């Protein structure tokens, strides 16, 4: 009798748990501020990633480096080629400003965010995710012009099936 009850309730419960339990850490790209998963990038051991884009005004590449924790995104470095509009001219606090071969760096950054809002570029920005030395163009996975919220999340098998996996 107990075994039949287990089969009737335990097995479906176990299956539901396997499907809906958020176990996989990802870089999540959600639609605006609504939380609807659009795309995700599964993490291996490496917890650092970069976002590279072409600045809309001075048309040079900007490289932002991040490190993920369970619920935070920490910006750790910024690299750029021009002091034009929107780019910092110096480091703040304990950050370090360096110039090397025409590239400006702000290092030792410890800026924490729960999420990063980004509008995927339609024309010049060409936003790219760089992870484990591989580059993925976001417009290949997310409609250009879409406002996305980037966050560190754990997702379930069900969410993986609903979202678009960003991979090479």
Fill in the keyword field for this structure.
5-stranded mixed beta sheet, 13 strands, 15% helix, elongated
Mind explaining what this structure looks like?
The protein has helices at 2-20, 157-162; strands at residues 24-31, 36-42, 48-54, 61-68, 73-80, 96-100, 103-107, 111-113, 116-119, 128-131, 134-137, 147-155, 164-165. With 168 residues, it is mainly beta. It has one domain (24-165). The strands form 2 sheets. Strands 3, 4, 5, 6, 7, 8, 10 and 11 form an 8-stranded antiparallel beta sheet that branches. Strand 3 and strand 4 (61-68) form a beta hairpin. The protein is elongated and about 75 Å long. Pfam families: DUF1850. InterPro entries: DUF1850 (IPR015001). This is DUF1850 domain-containing protein.
Number of helices: 2
Structural class of the helix and strand makeup?
mainly beta
Order of helices and strands: HEEEEEEEEEEEEHE
Rounded mean pLDDT score: 89
The strand count comes to 13
Q: In one word, what is the shape?
A: elongated
């Amino acid at each position: 009798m107990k075994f039949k009850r287990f089969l009737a309730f335990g097995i479906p419960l176990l299956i539901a748990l396997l499907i809906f339990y958020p176990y996989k850490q990802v870089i999540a790209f959600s639609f605006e501020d609504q939380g609807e998963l659009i795309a995700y990038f599964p993490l291996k051991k490496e917890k650092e990633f970069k976002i590279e884009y072409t600045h809309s005004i001075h048309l040079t590449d900007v490289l932002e480096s991040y490190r993920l924790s369970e619920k935070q995104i920490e910006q750790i470095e910024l690299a750029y080629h021009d002091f034009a509009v929107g780019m910092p001219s110096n480091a703040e606090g304990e950050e370090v400003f360096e110039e090397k071969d025409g590239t400006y760096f702000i290092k030792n950054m410890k800026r924490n965010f729960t999420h990063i809002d980004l509008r995927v570029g339609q024309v010049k920005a060409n936003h790219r995710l760089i992870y484990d030395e591989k580059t993925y163009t976001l417009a290949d996975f997310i409609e250009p012009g879409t406002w996305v919220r980037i966050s560190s999340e754990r997702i379930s098998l069900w969410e993986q099936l609903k979202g678009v996996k960003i991979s090479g």
